[in-house]
Write a structure and sequence with these properties.
Blueprint lengths: L9 H25 L11 H11 L8 H21 L6 H19 L5 H11 L2 H6 L2 H21 L11
Length: 168
């Protein structure tokens, strides 16, 4: 299958909406049920960008499971490591730039390029005390937990139509 930059079938809009809605709603709903009183969160900004790829462009190489899961995990590891090494808030410009640029290079090396991973690395260093306090747990929750939910919903929704196939 060849990647199509623009999906022309109007039915694809419905599938993209349904997938993104169910994926993001699932993460948010689980957070509201179980994590209200815990100093944790499931829903981070980079998941919105992942939803665009997984549900809006499911045939993109950047939306495939290796990239979705691996890109977020590599980037989360990088982001947390940088956040732990550079703790001075006045150097957030340095930690931010190091986290994103290092995440890009490591995604390239590991062949897990997923553009929202850059945001995952950035969130680890600028995401506030709630995120910083998680340290390496950030990799498991919210990152791994969230991408597994996005992937699972993508696997289900993107294969409901005979015209869509995920993963490729």
């Amino acid at each position: 299958m060849i990647y199509k930059q623009t999906l022309l079938n109007p039915q694809d809009h419905l599938w993209a909406f349904l997938g993104a809605f169910v994926g993001i709603a699932s993460i948010g709903y689980i957070q509201s049920l179980f994590l209200e009183e815990m100093p944790n969160l499931f829903l981070i900004g980079s998941f919105g960008a992942s939803a665009v790829l997984v549900y809006g462009a499911p045939n993109s190489p950047l939306a495939q499971p290796r990239n979705l899961i691996g890109g977020h995990l590599v980037s989360a590891i990088v982001g947390v490591t940088i956040a732990l090494l550079i703790t001075d808030k006045e150097l957030s410009w340095l930690s931010s730039s190091l986290a994103v640029s290092s995440a890009i290079v490591l995604m390239q090396i590991t062949k897990t390029m997923h553009p929202p991973g850059g945001a995952t690395a950035l969130i680890a260093v600028i995401g506030g005390e709630k995120i910083r306090d998680l340290k390496y747990l950030y990799i498991v929750s919210p990152v791994l937990t969230g991408v597994v939910i996005l992937f699972s919903v993508g696997l289900f929704v993107n294969n409901l139509s005979k015209d869509r196939k995920y993963p490729l």
